[in-house]
Amino acid sequence: MNSNKGEASVILLVDDNATNLSILVQSLSAAGYKVRVAQDGESAIAQIPYAKPDLILLDVMMPGMDGFETCRRLKATPETQAIPVIFMTALSDVFDKVKGFQVGAVDYITKPFEIEEALVRVNTHLAIQKLQNQLQTQTEQLQAEICDRQKAQEAVQVFLHAVSHDLRNPVTGGLMVLKSLQKEAEAQNGTVAVSRSILQRMVQSHDRQLALINSLLETHGNEMSGITLECQPVDLFALVTQIAIEWQPMLEQDKSVLQNQVSSNSPLVSVDSNQLWRVYENLIANALKHNPPGITLTITAELDPVSQPSPMMRCTIQDDGIGIPPEQSASIFELYKRGTQARRTVGLGLGLYLCRQIILAHGGQIGLASHPGNGSTFWFTLPLLQ
To answer: What is the CATH number of the domain that holds 81?
Structure first.
């Protein structure tokens, strides 16, 4: 279709009568149209891909493939079905006219031609076709805008869920410490001694909460669903040790144990410590939520012998719980996927999705090895400090 502004419309004439063709070619050319000619249905269909007509004037009675069958084939093909077809006929039978509309024609003109009438009909249907094309373009643009808006709304939803999800764990831990201190204060008539280590843990926990909020706000401002990284040298042993200390109240409440088997001599990794903290917290919380109380969590970190092209550290969090069925394992890192055996239903299945996004942003990989009844091992890789 020739939709460029100022470009003459192309009309394809299909008729086996030379006299009719001559009259129409002269009249349409004089009116400013580009005219292409075919003398039967087969040749008309064959030249459409390169002629690209905006409208087809099609004779009904032709040898071989008649006009009805030609029109039927045009309307059955996606590339040509939108081209308006006007039948040219000497027939006056109402049935034939109705049949023309049934096979897809938009109008008809009768022979012998009234040139002025033919030109008016051609002009009218070209104008209608132009408006339909404009409407189609506007519809596609509107659909694209709606799609973009839906994506933006989904990104905002993920952002808000990420904030609430990742702040829940440190807030819960801090609240447990405060409630414990409150009980001591009540037992001692309003006073309680707070050790420096507890105060330091609470300050560090709030510092991390503030850093997490700032990180999430930066991420939301730059790219709705992306991950913003501020990588630095990180000692995994020290990081996991600190995480284990902060999670101790929640582990004790769950009667579970966390074993830090990361070597104190492990090489440094180049990561965003706040984002990596989120990964560990989400994986620990996931293990506690989806298993009965009393599990043992084991955290390790070793050089990955198969990582290419750069060496990576392979980190694992293993539990001795009930395991995860294969049908859940296949999609467990997808957005809003939740396990079916969670003991606490709070949450939307966002944690493992966030873990994957963070690890991928670091250039690493993440996965799961699990068999029902034999526990689960979540693993991920991190870049070493070069």
So the answer is: 3.40.50.2300
